[in-house]
Each structure stands twice: as structure tokens, then as C-alpha cells.
Design a protein that fits this description.
The protein is of the alpha+beta class and 278 residues long. It is 26% helix and 30% strand. It has 8 helices and 14 strands. The strands form 3 sheets. Strands 1, 9, 10, 11, 12, 13 and 14 form a 7-stranded mixed beta sheet that branches. A hairpin with a 2-residue loop joins strand 13 (251-253) and strand 14. The radius of gyration is 19 Å and the shape is globular.
Length: 278
């Protein structure tokens, strides 16, 4: 039986490449869709087409940069960090149900929420040709530098390694870490080794798991964790497969290899055709 386990490529690109030398071009998708309101306002966790900021991730980055008002107290005290919010994209593209998934500091958490709440309507998710409610998330990394202020968008544990207190762990660098065979190769690797847990499949459990890990200076992977889980068996399966990854190309800052914390979403999706054939 074939059970598809997929990765949200556009989000991986956003998290791993944003802030580097590469840019992200949003694909234009033209569909004739019918507005639908699933019974009980159902949220579709794995739609056919994910919700998207209007204009794509590049425009979203521009909006965030233009909207940012770095809290004065945070700037004066050199407070920086990663903030990740999860939310629902409604049928009309408005955003609701904001939930923080990764905290940095209350001042930064509040500013990130303010920016997301001020966003214009998104393009809603599509499932079976109809607009549906679905979840999405936006990571923002608040960073101070000598030239001013900037922000970048970007549980369980395995392979935990002690971190040298003198070692700086970056989130956004000049050149982000990369799987040896690129993003497509990462997708193929995960699809090849992922095994859908039988109980979760039988119970129809599917959706997105958000994982984090550190790519060390030598490319090794460590400190794998689930920062937004779905189901214990699915969470552990995601960590099992990610712990098998070979060395990555390390991140580079000022032409030097550095350790970088990366965030990777993995979508577990059961192919309905396979269920029907059983």
C-alpha cells in the first residue's frame, strides 16, 4: 500500500533560504474554485493547495520588513530570537486562531503577532476544488546588527548533543545549510524512508508536524525536536527518519561554517485511494 508522506516545499524554501542570496518566486495558480463551508467549520489539515500570502513569500517578506517596529526596550537590551505563530486561514483569506509555537521574548512575540494580524487577506487553501479553512504558520527571526534592525521570516528530541556555551547557534546566515542533494533530494529521502504508523493510518490521523534541528559546523545533524506535534507515533516517526539524514552542507556566515538551527515541516497524508482499495 502506498501512503504518501509529503513535505511542504514552499515552506522549506522559505525557512532555509530566506535571508540568503536566493530569492523565492511564487507560482501563479489559476483555479476556478467554489466557496465552501465544511460542516462545523472544519479545518482541512492537508489541503490539495496550501494557503498562501497573496503575492507569495517574497511579498510577505517585504510586508513584514516594512511593518516591523522593533520594540525599543528589546533593541536597547539586545533581545533577539525566533518567533513562530500558527493560525487559521479562513475561507475569505482572513487570519484567525493565532497560536504561538516558538517564543523568543514577550516583546518580540507581541510584535510578531501584531504584524501577522495586520496582514492583508491570504489566498485560502483549496481541497477537492473548493476553498477550505486550513492552518499555516509564519516564522520571524528578529535580529539586530550594527547597521540597524532587521527581521527575517524563516516535545520530543533525538540526537541531542551538548552545545558549547561559547558556540553561537544562528538562525539566519549568509548561506543557509542545505541537504547534500538539495531540497528535492531531501523530499525524496524522507518519502523513501518514512513509514506511516499502522495505528495512525487506521485512525485516519494526518496533518503537519513541525520539527527543528541544528546543522553543526561540520554538517552533522543534532538536537532534533518536535516543536509542534500531531500524534506520538507520527512525531517519533518523523524524528526517526530525520535522525537518519546524512551530513548537510553547513551554513556559512562571513565565509565561515557556522552552526544553524533549522525548522522543517513534514506533512503526513493518507492517500484516500489506498484506503478505498483495502
Amino acid at each position: 500500500m502506498r501512503v504518501s508522506t509529503i513535505i511542504s516545499s514552499s515552506i522549506i524554501t522559505l525557512l532555509l533560504l530566506l535571508g540568503g542570496s536566493q530569492t523565492i518566486e511564487a507560482k501563479t495558480i489559476q483555479l476556478s474554485v467554489e466557496q465552501s463551508n465544511p460542516p462545523g467549520g472544519k479545518i482541512v489539515e492537508v489541503p490539495d493547495i496550501d494557503p498562501m500570502y497573496t503575492g507569495g513569500s517574497h511579498e510577505m517578506t517585504r510586508f513584514i520588513a516594512n511593518s516591523l517596529r522593533y520594540p525599543r526596550e528589546a533593541a536597547e537590551n539586545d533581545i533577539q530570537g525566533l518567533v513562530v505563530y500558527n493560525f487559521v486561514v479562513e475561507l475569505d483569506g482572513s487570519l484567525s486562531n493565532f497560536e504561538i509555537m516558538h517564543r523568543a521574548h514577550p516583546l518580540l512575540d507581541e510584535e510578531a503577532l501584531r504584524i501577522i494580524q495586520s496582514m492583508p487577506p491570504w489566498r485560502p487553501a483549496v481541497y477537492k476544488g473548493k476553498n477550505v479553512r486550513s492552518t499555516q504558520y509564519v516564522p520571524m527571526y528578529f535580529k539586530l546588527n550594527k547597521n540597524g534592525v532587521r527581521t527575517q521570516t524563516t516535545a520530543q528530541q533525538r540526537k541531542v548533543m551538548p552545545i558549547d556555551p561559547n558556540e553561537e547557534i544562528f538562525t539566519i546566515v549568509d548561506q543557509m545549510p542545505e541537504f547534500p542533494t538539495g531540497e528535492d533530494g531531501l523530499g525524496r529521502f524522507i518519502s523513501e524512508f518514512m513509514q506511516y504508523p499502522i495505528r495512525a493510518k487506521q485512525d485516519g490521523i494526518q496533518g503537519r508536524i513541525l520539527c527543528a534541528f541544528i546543522v553543526r559546523k561540520d554538517g552533522t545533524i543534532s538536537n532534533l525536536e518536535v516543536i509542534n506535534g500531531l500524534d506520538n507515533e507520527l512525531d517519533n516517526e518523523a524524528l526517526r527518519v530525520l535522525s537518519m539524514m546524512p551530513k548537510w552542507k553547513p551554513g556559512m556566515n562571513d565565509n565561515n561554517p557556522v552552526s544553524v538551527k533549522c525548522i522543517l515541516p513534514i506533512d503526513f497524508k493518507i492517500d484516500e485511494r489506498d484506503i478505498a482499495s483495502e
